[in-house]
Specification:
By secondary structure, the protein is mainly alpha-helical. The chain has 15 helices and no strands.
């Protein structure tokens, strides 16, 4: 539910920005060009958060609360280090990076306006997204959901005020976002310092331990690659669309990826909901519960992705129209949306298997699946196909990669985990 709310959190900026009078299409394109930077920041928060939270949950399952709190403390320190490096580096190199991402002279001003403000809030993104997982991994699902809900409600309310009421345009969207994330971050940190939490941030655990930090990095590298390669994918797609199509095609990609997030973010939420249960029971050697949780998660995740994707394919105009009123951009988005998203019909299989591998602490397999879909399949396809099929080849690269990777993940899970580790057994 928290991630369903997060859909609104992530997309409300784009909906309002796309409807700014006169410059909505260019502003939406500028926001799309900023997306690789935003995804990179989120990737580093996932490196520490998703790399540590499943391990903390496993330690709780074993009854070792001290070890779990040490993991939390090391994650906090890693998030602080990442924040300093990213904020300084991205501020210094944002202009050449945006041109590298596919910006033109007419769109870069909007991208810079957004990032100049958004980067100030890097610390809030890190704290909110990286540490909220440590709330849910303890079983405080409602509290973790409320962390997201606070920011989402604020963002929805502040966006129209700043963008239209105060006439700040895209700058207003960025300001609303970082203010909302700041409130969520304060909520998360306050909870993890308070009396209700089972895992508490303690000063003695903030000092980095090579073994603990290494374990976080080893497991977190998979979600980090999944997020950071999303950034790389966006760069490759934007550059290709700029080369073969122009600004209109680059702007349309923002719409396609936004609609994709309407499906992928809730699916990711369902998988995150299952992961602490899988980790805890795996640590407690309750194998039947792990098996049953996987089956329930698969039914929910695959079912949701199939039904929602099918709805988008049937009514593309309805979904594309949420993000733009520009006739040319709308027509192009409606034409390309069914092609770009058709692979998500079976994407739920990959997400369920990926999350389960993470929950079981199997970092290497999880890492391979992440690399397989994005680095080995999607990026080469996005570069090679347009040479033969023009701009349409870029759009077709996504569903081809999604389909192959989902089938691969399902086969790997069945062969390496289901048949060997999750054999049915009666538990006392």
């Amino acid at each position: 539910i928290a991630q369903l709310i997060n859909v609104v959190y992530n997309l409300v900026d784009r909906i309002y920005i796309g409807h700014i009078p006169d410059v909505g299409a260019q502003a939406l394109t500028g926001l799309g060009l900023s997306l690789p930077v935003i995804l990179l920041i989120q990737a580093f928060s996932a490196l520490a958060g998703m790399g540590g939270a499943p391990q903390a949950s496993i330690q709780l399952g074993k009854g070792d609360r001290n070890a779990a709190e040490k993991i939390l403390g090391n994650s906090v320190t890693m998030l602080i280090v990442f924040t300093v490096i990213l904020t300084a580096g991205l501020y210094l190199f944002k202009t050449p990076l945006l041109y590298l991402f596919g910006a033109s002279d007419s769109t870069i001003v909007f991208a810079e306006d957004y990032l100049n403000i958004y980067l100030v809030g890097t610390v809030f993104v890190m704290a909110y997204q990286g540490l909220n997982m440590y709330i849910s991994c303890q079983g405080f699902a409602k509290t973790a959901m409320f962390s997201v809900l606070i920011g989402a409600v604020l963002n929805i309310g502040l966006d129209p005020l700043f963008i239209f009421g105060l006439h700040m345009g895209i700058k207003g969207a960025a300001l609303a976002t970082i203010f909302s994330q700041a409130v969520s971050a304060v909520w998360v940190v306050t909870f993890l310092l308070g009396k209700k939490t089972g895992l508490k941030i303690r000063k003695c655990n903030l000092r980095l331990n090579s073994k603990t930090a290494g374990g976080i990095l080893a497991l977190g590298i998979s979600p980090f690659i999944m997020q950071s390669t999303e950034s790389l994918i966006t760069i490759v797609l934007n550059r290709g669309l700029q080369q073969y199509g122009g600004d209109l095609y680059v702007g349309t990609l923002t719409i396609l990826q936004s609609v994709m997030q309407l499906i992928v973010i809730p699916v990711n939420g369902f998988s995150q909901g299952a992961q602490p249960i899988i980790s805890y029971n795996y640590g407690a050697r309750k194998i039947a519960r792990v098996r049953n949780t996987f089956l329930i998660a698969l039914a929910i995740i695959w079912g949701f992705s199939f039904v929602f994707t099918g709805t988008v394919l049937l009514f593309p105009h309805l979904f594309a129209g949420m993000f733009t009123s520009n006739p040319q951009m709308l027509d192009l988005a409606v034409a390309k949306l069914p092609v770009f998203l058709v692979g998500l019909l079976i994407f739920g299989v990959q997400m369920t298997c990926q999350s389960t591998f993470m929950g079981l602490g199997k970092a290497k397999i999880s890492l391979f699946i992440a690399l397989w879909r994005k680095v080995i399949l999607l990026i080469p396809l996005a570069i090679i196909l347009p040479r033969f099929f023009g701009v349409d080849g870029i759009y077709w690269s996504e569903p081809i990669a999604d389909t192959i990777s989902a089938l691969t993940a399902g086969a790997l899970f069945f062969l390496t985990v289901w048949r060997k580790e999750l054999k049915f057994q009666k538990e006392k």
